[in-house]
Input
Amino acid sequence: MDFDLNEQQEMFTKGVRDFARGEIAPRCAKMDAAGIIDPELLDMVRDHGFFGLCFPETYGGLGLDTVTYGRVVAELARVDAGVAIMVSVHNGVGSFPILQFGSEELRREVLPRMSKGELASFCVTEPGAGSDAASMTTRAERTETGYRLSGEKIWVTNGYHAQFFVVTARLDNEPGHDGISAFLVDRDTPGLMVGAKEDKMGLRSSDAVSLVLENVDVPGARRLGEEGDGFKIAMSALDGGRIGVAYQSVGLAQACLDVGARYAIEREQFGKPIATKQAIQWMLADLATELEQARLLADKAAWLKDQGRSYGREAAMAKLAASEMAGRAADRALQIHGGYGYSKDYDIERYYRDARVLRIYEGTSEIQRLVIARSVLSEYGG
Ligand code: COS
Output
């Protein structure tokens, strides 16, 4: 067993760390206040190839393995978790359905454009269909040339900038999971309306919008997989997406450890740095230990994916453990800061807000437990 990254992975990770510190860090506070990514930074992210991390080189991407990709997401999240989720959604749930289930012709048409920075998004959640994704009501009906889609999607990450929307819809009112199909919809398709951005508590450099589809005509060639495959496509995309969120959580928790430890060393009370107090040391020790546990779980899930082995259960475990850990990490690091941590003058205030959604999106902690429990019970005949 080898826990070291190879030389290329190390180099790549260091390059991303330097980019994040040099270009993203100076912009974080402003982007958080404005609730939007700095357009200049978006161009830089695009030019540096962050939107083609996981695509094979034949489609213009960098062809990274999942472990390296995870390190990239973590390094971004260590500086700005919003930028990290933008990159992660694009490379994960936004493009995986095309890479895995699109026709070769569609892949050749679309993936090079995505690699160059035309953003992708994933549209499953609806006002009445959150954790129970299969209860979606967005409709698709067959036409002479393909399909016509109508309905509403919400919490579409990247939707404000996206050119491509992976949309799931119920075909011909067929009930159940098998009634759902998946489609790739271009932004400029008549009838597709991108709604206002959510005014979110955290991850404010990343956008999430609602999407209204009114008689949106989609060519048959833009269906992903077979008719009725949409639910499974969405679920398998989420398996990979959850690895991305696990690494995002690891990166954010690392940021909490960074600022918590530094503050503890600098801050003096009772005549000494608070880092000399056991109460503070134990918080840092627990944070560092849990962070390491979560990183190992994320690496295991990513490694399984790279081996072409089944990874849904491990992805759910990694997402559950890492997102819950990031919440505790932010809470501990804020506690170490005392009253100052409650002020916007310190990064920990943003980390605390950013950490909260990790336990919710791409499947709540409760859904991860459900996925894990079903997998465990099935081993015992349950
Ligand atoms: N990959 C491939 N297929 C999968 C799958 C996966 N990860 N998970 C389930 N399926 C298949 C099942 O095998 C089943 O197939 P068959 O009908 O052929 O047996 C089918 O999909 C239905 O599965 P299941 O019965 O488990 O579906 P449920 O309605 O019970 O839903 C949960 C399962 C709750 C796990 C699912 O709805 C879920 O993940 N919800 C959370 C959604 C989410 O994460 N939303 C966030 C969106 S991004 S912000």
